[in-house]
Amino acid sequence: MIQVLIVDDEPKLREGLRSFIDWEAYGYCVVDTASNGNEALEKYQQLRPGLVIADIRMPGMDGLQLIGHLRELDPSLHILILSGYADFEYAKRAIQQRADGYLLKPVDEDELIDYLGTIKSQIEEESQAEQWRLTTREWGRESFILSLMVEHPGDPEQLWSRAEELGLAWKCYQVLLLSTVLDETDYGEKLAAVRTAMTRLLEAKGRGYVFSHHSQIGVLLNDPILPVEWTELYSNIRNVVEALDIDFSLALGPKVCRIEEVAYSYGVANRLNKNHFFLGNDRLLTEELLVEQKYDGGASVHELDEQIFYAVEIGNHELVKQLIEQKGACYISEGLTEEQIKLHFAEMLTALLGRAIKQSQELQQRNREFTEYLSDIYKAWTLSEVYEKAQQFLKKMMSELGSNECSKHQEVKMMLELIHRNYNENLKLETLSGILNYNSAYLGKLFKNETGEYFNTYLDKVRIEKAKGLLEEGLKVYQVAERVGYTNVDYFHSKFRKYVGTSPSAYRKTSNN
């Protein structure tokens, strides 16, 4: 509806004109009336109507003076003049001041309706033209902003001149960049929703202008985001984006002082988003986070795999968590990519599942179910999410193995169980001491006191007993050596002769006879 303000010093005429026709039927609404020019100016500034109908003769300020003041406030305002026959020449002067027309008193209904139709069409055309102008300006501005993101955007003087034309000549600049991963099915709709949210949160508040680039929504800021604002800004954007079920990362480039340096701010923000897998998505990513992550040494990846398996077997959830994070840090220090890290974690979990299946009939029956869980590793958006999914996988495996957190008086019992279940593995006292969180010398002494045997001696005896059974079944010596954990056949021979008193071959012949 086009709002109308009626101005006349005669109350009857004002109210009569208000009820003269069905204004709404023609797309108008009379919002108020005024009795003189001064009152009309005051109400105009409050209401900002699209059409003013004013008497040409009023005390204090006449119609011509009112038109002059209204034109200063809004050059495009539409005005109709009311006049008597005696004021006809006066009314013509008003028309020369760009009044839309004049109506002789008493007002003719058809004549007024004709004017209203003409003015309504003009207002609609003006609105469309203004919308097109704004749209064209927005397109031009966004295109210019995107051109600033390249490494060499052009001559600085020309850039500044164009920036002045588009309202982008600022003292400083900063790029805020949101990166998403969207399915093709709902790509456009969700991206538009994210852009609308960024517009509401920043552009509508005069902080800068929003732009779109592929799956990214960015804001070229004229007012840098201060550190005290980071948490609230991230929280507001996260609430919107997560409601759309979108994985995202949000990065803030550094502040720059020249328009040709916008590309640098964008480049840092883009790099931060590309590293979201390592940096996480639980905060606003900033330049300070781009530091090299290093692994402080310690166990190798293979040793960590062994420790993780034993930690699973004894049900030490906290240790499993620590070891998984150590493994991730080790991969980072080796410079592995996101895809490589996911692959290695999936391979580790597959290997651990294979070892666990040998010990649990229940796991054998649920092998397919566990295998499906592994696909979640590849869907992880961040490294911390990989850790979480790996821990969930192993926690479920622990429950199937019946593992329980060990207490301090059960260390030797747990070591014995590990030996009897994993005698064919490369078991070391140092590995178990790390799992049980004890000094290896102390743990070895504790084991000797409880069993009467040194750890390695006890392990050898268990292996030899297992070897005797396999030899009695008719397996070849090298096969038996591999089955019980000896990679060197000669070393197996010496150990067997030490504990049995004869060679493996001789023992097999005797058992066969």
TrEMBL record:
Q: Where would I find the HTH araC/xylS-type domain in this sequence? A: 413-510
Q: Which PROSITE patterns does this chain map to?
A: HTH_ARAC_FAMILY_1, HTH_ARAC_FAMILY_2, RESPONSE_REGULATORY
InterPro entries in UniProt: HptR (IPR051552), HTH_AraC (IPR018060), HTH_AraC-typ_CS (IPR018062), Sig_transdc_resp-reg_receiver (IPR001789)
Q: What is this protein called?
A: Response regulator transcription factor
> What is the superkingdom listed in this entry's lineage?
Bacteria
The species is Paenibacillus brevis
Q: Which Pfam families match?
A: HTH_18, Response_reg
Give residue ranges for domain Response regulatory.
3-120
Which key words are in the record? Answer: Cytoplasm, DNA-binding, Phosphoprotein, Transcription, Transcription regulation, Two-component regulatory system
Q: Which residues carry this modification: 4-aspartylphosphate?
A: 55
